[in-house]
Structure formats: C-alpha cells, structure tokens
C-alpha cells in the first residue's frame, strides 16, 4: 500500500532545503551544534516511513509525497525544541504534515485537494450522531482486508473522499485515537468518529463487491450487512 521516500536525506533532512531558503536553517543548525541535530535524528527520523505513507494518502496524485515530507521535516526541525517527546512528538509531526499538505494543495489552492474541515460542519459531525452502519462494521472491514490483496484495498481506499480517507488511514493504519486524529487534522472529535464510521462503511461496501468479483463472497457471507 505504501511507497518509500526517494529524495529525503535521512541523516540531515534540513540540508535538502530549496535555494529560496538561503541556507538560513543550515546556518542555524551549525550555530546550535550537532547535539540538537543528533537528537532530531534519533527522535524524529524514525517516523520518516510512516510520514511518507501518510503523505502518499494525503497527496493521492495531487502532490509529491517526497516534497511534503521534506517540508514537514524542515518545519519540524525549525520548531524542534518546542515539540513534545515520545508519542506526543508523533502526533505533532503528523499535524505538521497535515498543515504542510493543506498549504501545498488545500481546496482553495488545488481543485480536488484535501479538505480536512468544511466551512460549516454538518450537524451529524458536530453532534457525533451515528450513521446507519452495523455495530461490528470494523471487524467486517478487517475480515475483508485479510481476504483481499493489498492492491485491491489500496484502490478502495483511494476512492474514498479525501477528508474521509485520511481519517480512516490515520485511525486504522497508524492506530491514532480519535482525539489524536482530531488534533492532527484540526477538526472536531465528533467529525473524526462520523467520518470513520462513514469511511469504514464505504470500504466494506467496496471490498465486499471486490470479494464478489474474485469469488470470495462465500467466505465473506458473514460480513455482508443485512438489507
């Protein structure tokens, strides 16, 4: 499902700055010494692969994931001394990535790009009222994922609306809580829960149809919601 970063310097991410930066970040890096850079490498760089995978989901053909991750690490390095440690660092890195993606190709700038938060939240999203889906829909989606090849799952995920797709990805692939996803995307927790239910329901429908095409419907008979 995931690609891999190809042009990101894994040791000194800030040294891949564009010419427009004027080298200011590199100068600041030299001034603060190697200690901060070494700590940045140790604490932030292990998330490189996960950030790239998420950037691929956010970009979905509208931008270069390499560029998004590069900019994310540049921004993170600039603010590194103010970032939390441990699990909190991962959340903040993903928040920086989301902000970077919106800056690069958000809806006002790029038709078809990401829209994390509509101008007016739908009442269902604000209140967190449930959509009409089975209570065990998550288990059904998991079962479908186990039966289908990765390329089929990736295609189904790509077909989800952007604001739904990234919520499903962050929750089910990155194992973030609803509160963490809300912080990352800058939306209400109720919106996260609503979009997650909606996205999983759409995935279940799409993957069940794919399983039917592949002759797996008999194995998925317990996964198909009753009419």
What structural category arises from helix and sheet content?
A: mainly alpha
- Low-confidence parts: 16-27, 108-113, 118-133
| Number of continuous helical runs | 11
Over all CA atoms, what is the radius of gyration? 19 Å
The CATH top-level class label of the largest domain:
Mainly Alpha
Supply the CATH architecture of the largest domain: Orthogonal Bundle
How much strand content do the residues show?
under 5%
Helices and strands, in N-to-C order? HHHHHHHHHHH
Outline the structure in words.
- It is elongated, with a radius of gyration of 19 Å.
- About 15% of the residues have low confidence.
- The two termini are 31 Å apart.
- With 227 residues, it is mainly alpha-helical.
- It folds into two domains: 93 residues, RNA polymerase sigma factor, region 2, helix turn helix motif (Rna Polymerase Sigma Factor, Chain: A); 91 residues, Arc Repressor Mutant, subunit A (Orthogonal Bundle), CATH 1.10.10.10.
